[in-house]
Amino acid sequence: MAARMLPSEKDPIGPEGTATVSITVDGHAATGILGQSIAGIIMAGERLGFRQTAKLDRPRGVFCGIGVCFDCLVEVNGLSDVRACQRKASEGDVVVTARDPQPRGGAA
Amino acid sequence: MSEVLVIGAGPAGLAAARAASDAGASVVLLDASDALGGQFWRHLPETRPARNEKYLHHGWSTFRALGEALESSPTVTIIRSAQVWAIEVLDGVAVHAMIGEPDGARRERRVFRPDALVLATGAHDRTLPFPGWDLPGVFTGGAAQALAKGERLAVGERVLVAGAGPFLLPVAQSLTRSGSRVIGVLEANRAARLARGWSPRPWQLLGAAGKGLELAGYAAGHVRHRIPYRLGRAVIAAHGTDRVGSVTVAKVDAQWAPVPGTEHTLEVDAVCVSHGFTPRIELAIAAGCELTPNRFVAVDGNQRTTTDGVYAAGEITGIGGVDLALAEGEIAGHFAAASATESVSAPPTAAIRRRRVFTGFAHRIEAAHGIRSGWSGWLTDSTLICRCEEVDFGSMRAAAVATESESFRSLKLGTRAGLGICQGRMCGRTTEELLCALNPNRELSDGAVSDRRPLASPLRIGELAHPSSQNNARKGTP
Amino acid sequence: MVSSAIVIGAGIVGAACARSLAMAGLDVTVIDRSTAASATTARGEGNLLVSDKAPGPELVMALAAAKRWPALVRELADELGDGFPGIEYEPKGGLVVATTEDGAAPLLRFAAAQRSAGVDARELSVAEALNLEPDLNPAITAAVHYPQDAQVHPVNAAEALLASARRHGARVRQNVNLSGPILDANGTLLGIATNEGELHADAIIVAAGPWSGEVARTLGVTLPVLPRRGMVLVTSRMPKRIFHKVYDADYVGAVGSGDAALQTSGVVESTESGNVLIGSSREQLGFDDRLRVDTIAQIAAKAIRLFPFLADQAVIRTYGGFRPFMPDHLPLVSRDHRMPGLWHATGHEGAGIGLAPITGELIAALVAGAAAPCDPEPYSLARSSLEPHLTAVA
Ligand SMILES: Cc1cc2nc3c(=O)[nH]c(=O)nc-3n(C[C@H](O)[C@H](O)[C@H](O)COP(=O)(O)OP(=O)(O)OC[C@H]3O[C@@H](n4cnc5c(N)ncnc54)[C@H](O)[C@@H]3O)c2cc1C
Ligand SMILES: Cc1cc2nc3c(=O)[nH]c(=O)nc-3n(C[C@H](O)[C@H](O)[C@H](O)COP(=O)(O)OP(=O)(O)OC[C@H]3O[C@@H](n4cnc5c(N)ncnc54)[C@H](O)[C@@H]3O)c2cc1C
Ligand code: FES
User: Fold this and answer.
1) Which residues surround ligand 2 with Cβ inside 6 Å?
2) What is the pTM assigned to this prediction?
């Protein structure tokens, strides 16, 4: 167990919104509360690593949480380099967490 | 009507926008986030309003009052999700923003040419590297705060908070109020230094009464939750394969060098580490503003920078907390409006008085908690310094020794430290300090600094190529 | 007998001069008013291009340089060992394409002329070009492949040349300011005055990049070296999708032009780290280094014209520098006939990285009176095309 959402009914601040948002993360369905970031939804799913680094093949996840470290980059709807901690999840978002690009890989 | 543009809707920017509007200017307020409040008043999104949000915040009513005044004013335009990516100073100041989803691809590109500009871009945590700090589960204190306040997500069940400065206390409090168990707060500085800086207990403050009360609140929370607060200790390594499972904690001396033989291991599922703050000054540099020797934006008594018509407030002029940010913002907004409208009005004397009080507080934070050089004693050759480009300490030293270079620019390009997508936001100042210490003459003398980022955020090449709609700020259309 | 030299400027050109002079047995001191390898050399790209050069003396030098680089890279690696930052020499080849109907014929004519001057320039069909670069815009109208084009890491190459110079006995003094010449009664240059005292040498070599005109003036002569600004965009890391130095044929026109107004063309290549570098612009603004969004926006638009997929890639930085521009577009590697003791190695504009090694060898040969690696006359200060620019008296 690690990161987890505080259930609204137990939350001393009493959040009221209940609408949900559904996305897929690496092909798996994931649901969050409307207004959550993609990072928040992934982390609440008990996963902390979002990508594997290019050089050392190490896992990375959220570090700064405020959009300055770029460690939480994911691909959203085919677009790379999206900060999961800054992007609010939209219904149907297709999120891919992956190994960082291998500059030397590829064709020719 | 003359326009004041404010960048940043944290405490400083909100206060500036309000004061500028009160002084008769029309105001445009931009923030990259989709909510007002900045780092301090980060809160749940509109889709999830909370009945008792103030439980997580100090000064929540101040925020609400500022926000409501601005939102209801016909002469204030608030543009959320507006990422300022460049400031151009050719004839006058042009502010370039992308408006739309963060890191989107088809955002609206807009240019503002205001009569006066207030920069209030704040700061982010500075975390010094240690072995394993790249593991998932190692967070900055700010990340724990942002997730707790912005999403009601607790980063871990069993969490250690470590680093330096009074900011560790609200981090621990937010964690406990989001359901984490905080097993301790480690402050690297020892009692003697804290005592010299302000007082042996950070919450026993003189003068800055508001701050004292705020910190006293945190202290009470600590007692209630039985969170041990330990001085002279640091996290010197994190361990785990896919995520952090434990950390090594050690005593550190007055210079923050780890004391051999004092290491012990603690099991955790998250650790939040912050050693201070780095001001976000790239826009100020782009606007041509001079910096102070400590690399904050230099301002005069009216919060005016060295660039005509450009004002600065909040953490970018010095780390002093929310009350100082509010006071500075009010002064900056007032004088920015005066310069834009070319009018004179009575100076905001109350804000000026508050600024004096809280500036003293800022000096005490620095004296008591500022980073000491001994920390590099906990680095190993394989410790990553630059997270983006995965540059470790060993290869950095090898390059510094082999080239004997005194040039930060050359070493940066040679090692790739700071060249990745965060553009040295995480490692820049650390890299500068380490490379300087590794040079045979202990000097980097090319004048290059990691804070210079002509592009203040990434943008898509297609967005850059797309022509912008010229503004509007001058014409005053929303 | 010439036995000592001072090199003013520790960019890649100064570093190459210092190495060659030291290897020729001279006692060498390099001074820089700032730090080594951190001015123009750290603000450009690292291409060794033959493709953009028309038949003539600059092409002769470029062909010699293209031949020289592989061996030089091996020499430096052997000398400096593994701990030294890599030079990243990559003989990737260039691909020049025309993006308009009107642009096709001039590109093919240019290539034909280059072929007769010894350049390996291979005309490709559009299909063949897309085979080399699958993500290239299929709407191109002509393409020429230049296998001799290569790339290096300019800063690491400059640091390596300088470290090698040191190993051959050269001294490098950084943060030293030149204040004036030391002349004898006949006007022969005997040394230089600096903020750290006087330095004497038989040969004083100006290798101060775009500031060479300023340095020459301090020493008492005029030199028509002007700064020509260039900007580059850097993308985020991406999987390798661009395999050559790919550029729009209109670049050649921009390089050759003497127009001071802004000119941009699409110039795209990936680097070893996975970032793509996108150029380029040429503009004469003095040393004004303020950001100009219109310039980088134009560069971005032209890059997309070559590789449409780039539109969705993130750009993370922009940087730029000042190319040392000569009014007749030829480098200056020469004695100064107006002041005995004074030499110049400068004016390489957008080719100084590629041409540095040959420049160093040429200047060392000239200073030491040894056999030159190529005919020195075209690079002489006394060439007729410079005459109109040397008339003003300092
Ligand atoms: C993550 C974090 C959490 C914190 N939590 C606390 C806390 O709980 N208690 C405490 O005492 N102190 C806290 N602090 C310290 C706090 O930052 C300051 O006390 C206070 O917020 C400073 O106010 P400010 O207005 O100067 O900056 P900020 O509040 O940081 O506001 C700056 C604003 O500028 C915006 N911005 C920056 N760059 C751009 C750009 N290029 N384009 C558009 N917008 C931009 C940002 O989105 C942000 O909203 C925290 C700091 C951080 C980094
Ligand atoms: C955007 C751009 C892209 C480029 N791309 C390429 C490319 O792909 N391939 C290529 O071959 N070339 C390229 N170039 C050109 C290349 O960078 C230059 O030709 C080359 O770096 C010039 O090297 P230099 O040593 O002459 O000058 P510099 O590197 O500028 O070195 C001159 C040195 O002289 C010093 N100096 C100045 N004044 C004084 C003084 N008074 N006293 C002492 N020292 C002084 C400076 O501090 C500096 O260190 C590009 C240039 C730009 C701007
Ligand atoms: S966690 Fe740092 S940018 Fe998202």
Assistant:
1) C 8-14, 31-34, 39-41, 43-47, 178, 207-209, 211, 215, 230, 232, 279-280, 320-321, 323-324, 346, 348, 350-354
2) 0.95
